């Protein structure tokens, strides 16, 4: 009845119905390759990235076909969110403050202080830990912004002399 309405032979309808039951081996191969590439990208590659990877492997394929293969495979790109820095909201009661900001120390090697920070260099985060004897900081040397800038500048200069890029 519908075939008659659109002037399409019924044999064409039944041929199309029969073709849809056949397994398309090429499509299955492409879908499995898409899944493997997606897994190798740690679930982050989208259709454009996967298209480029498939073309590098020698497949003749378009982006919309990659999108439909991704949909059939039930995969979707998941991009990481932006990096969020966390700030302490309260002081840690489980870590006691033994000095209570009394930095006048008489003997060396009795009190040490330190800090840890991270620096973005060479495409990744590098951690920097500094530990100092407080006797050096007491008395004539009080750390302030200028002196911490000097310390950072000194670290930068020393790393450049050693051949590292910071």
Structure description:
The protein is an alpha+beta fold. The protein has two domains: 2-73, no CATH class; 112-161, no CATH class. It has seven helices and two strands, in the order αααααββαα. It has helices at 2-5, 10-21, 25-40, 47-56, 63-73, 134-137, 145-161, and strands spanning 112-121, 124-133. The chain has a two-stranded antiparallel sheet. Helix 3 packs across helix 5 (63-73) and helix 4 (47-56) packs across helix 5. It is elongated, with a radius of gyration of 32 Å. The chain starts with a helix and ends in a 5-residue tail after the last helix. The relative contact order is 0.07.
Features:
166 residues; alpha+beta; two-stranded antiparallel sheet; 7 helices; 12% strand
Topology:
Blueprint: H1 2-5, H2 10-21, H3 25-40, H4 47-56, H5 63-73, E1 112-121, E2 124-133, H6 134-137, H7 145-161
Antiparallel strand pairs: 1-2
Major sheet: order of its strands?
1-2
Given helix and strand content, the structural type is alpha+beta
Number of helices: 7
Largest sheet data = 2 strands, antiparallel
Quote the average pLDDT. Answer: 82
SSE sequence, one letter per element: HHHHHEEHH
Helical amount among residues, as a percent range?
Answer: 40-55%
Q: How many strands in all?
A: 2
Give the count of structural domains.
2
Q: What fraction strand?
A: 5-15%
Distance between the termini: 76 Å
Q: Which term fits the overall shape?
A: elongated
Low-confidence stretches: none
Rg is: 32 Å
């Amino acid at each position: 009845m519908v075939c008659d309405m659109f002037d399409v032979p019924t044999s064409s309808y039944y041929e199309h119905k029969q073709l849809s039951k056949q397994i398309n081996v090429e499509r299955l191969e492409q879908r499995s390759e898409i899944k493997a590439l997606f897994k190798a990208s740690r679930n982050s590659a989208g259709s454009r990235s996967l298209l480029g990877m498939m073309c590098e492997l020698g497949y003749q394929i378009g982006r919309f076909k990659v999108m439909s293969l991704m949909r059939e495979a039930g995969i979707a790109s998941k991009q990481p969110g932006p990096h969020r820095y966390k700030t302490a909201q309260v002081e840690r009661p489980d870590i006691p403050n033994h000095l209570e900001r009394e930095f006048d120390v008489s003997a060396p090697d009795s009190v040490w202080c330190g800090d840890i920070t991270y620096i973005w260099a060479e495409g990744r985060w590098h951690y920097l830990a500094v530990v100092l004897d407080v006797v050096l900081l007491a008395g004539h040397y009080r750390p302030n912004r200028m002196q911490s800038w000097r310390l950072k500048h000194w670290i930068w200069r020393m790393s450049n002399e050693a051949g590292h890029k910071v």
